[in-house]
Amino acid sequence: MTNRPLPGAAPPPGPSAQPPSREGGPDGARPGVAAPPAPRQGGSGLAKGASPAPVRTAARPGRRGGGGRKSPLARGGWTPWLYLAPALVVIGGLLVYPVYQLGLISFLEYTQAQVSGGEPATFQGFGNYATLFGDPQFWQVLLATVLFAGACVVSTLAVGCALAVLLTRVRAVPRLALMMAALGAWATPAVTGSTVWLLLFDPDFGPVNRILGLGDHSWTYGRYSAFALVLLEVVWCSFPFVMVTVYAGIRAVPAEVLEAASLDGASQWRIWRSVLAPMLRPILVVVTIQSVIWDFKVFTQIYVMTGGGGIAGQNLVLNVYAYQKAFASSQYSLGSAIGVVMLLILLAVTLVYLRLIRRQGEEL
Fold first, then answer.
1. pLDDT tens digits for 86-100?
2. Measuring CA to CA, which residue among 196, 182, 178, 317 is closest to residue 237?
3. In 3-state terms, what secondary structure has residue 331?
4. SS3 category, 108
5. pLDDT band at 363 (very low <50, low <70, confident <90, very high)
6. Which pick of 113, 141, 152, 324 has the fewest CB atoms within 10 Å?
7. What single string gives the DSSP state of each residue in 110-175?
8. How far apart are CA 250 and CA 339, in angstroms?
9. CA distance 288 to 290
10. Residue 194 burial (CB count, 10 A)
């Protein structure tokens, strides 16, 4: 027989009834405090004439009511510049002052008479630049320099990047041997390396002509063969920098990324073009700019291997051309003007390249 509740009595608490909270009420309300009225259905939830209660938002950590916190650079003031002062002084002494003297001499009439003190130096304005730009040989040398430097940069980057990828594929002993050979080529002085390459390609005693069966063929007689020979020597002594730098960047790439690309069926060229090259773009920017600067101002290899610029100056580049104008012809002002033009060209190429990289969203 079940006990039925009496009429008007409250039903006993079932298993789904909520126990009273510690605050004193079943819904967490404190004893003696009336609960807020429930909002009406279909309306805005507020009584007429009543304003909504203000909602408080938690303050974000690290901010004060008076304004944002200053950056460490703004708080440090001149402290960072004090740390950079010794380096800036050295750079100013080794770079800024020589560039200033170079630009100053390019605006003067400065020949052997002025160097010996027999005549005073006179201001020429842009007269030296007008003479230089009016010389057809200057434009021929400039075009040859741009083409030669571009070929050297592309070849150096191709060889260096290919060998950097190869270093990641071989075992420890071949990797060490290749690294030591590359660093030996990099450490060889330019004069020594140029002399060795001349001996290798010598028409009478060189082993290259004997191996290829070319007889007494002279590599430095023709214009293009001489440029090709110098290009090989420049690449030989320049690719180790690219190889070591790119290899360090590849080792920093997570192995899971390369493994995932291999599992997806990507070839080595596809992995380099779609995975490694985008991730190594900041490193490639650095080695490209360095290669452009080095190869554009090549002097020793051209001067030693072609005998000062080749037959009738057919292998002249801007650096050798400036040397001939300044020291062979004693026209120091024209040589300084060529140096200023080279400086402006390198600055323009570097700034344009960096701007293109920044447009692609890369942080440098």
1. 998 998 888 888 899
2. 182
3. strand
4. strand
5. low
6. 113
7. -BHHHHHTSS--EE-TTHHHHHHHT-HHHHHHHHHHHHHHHHHHHHHHHHHHHHHHHHTTS-HHHH
8. 37
9. 5
10. 23
Question: How many other C-beta atoms are found inside a 10 Å radius of the C-beta of residue 161?
Answer: 23
Residue type for position 220: T
Q: Please report, as a single letter, which amino acid is at residue 346.
A: L
Kindly calculate the radius of gyration of the chain based on its CA atoms and give it in whole angstroms. Answer: 38
Give backbone dihedrals phi and psi of 33, rounded to 5 degrees, phi first. -110, 125
- How many residues appear in the chain? 364
Structure tokens at 116: 């010996």
**Residue 123: its H or E element:** strand 122-123
Element containing residue 109 per DSSP (H, E): strand 108-109
Rounded to whole angstroms, the Cα distance separating 346 from 65 reads 50
3-state helix, strand, coil in the chain (%, to 5): 60, 0, 35
Average pLDDT over residues 306-316: 90
Here the tokens at position 267 are 């070839």
d(CA 125, CA 127): 5
Q: How far apart are CA 257 and CA 275, in angstroms?
A: 8
Please tell me the least confidently modeled range out of 7-16, 170-179, 348-357. 7-16
pTM of the model: 0.73
CB half-sphere exposure, 343, CA atoms < 13 A: 14
* DSSP SS3 for 201: coil
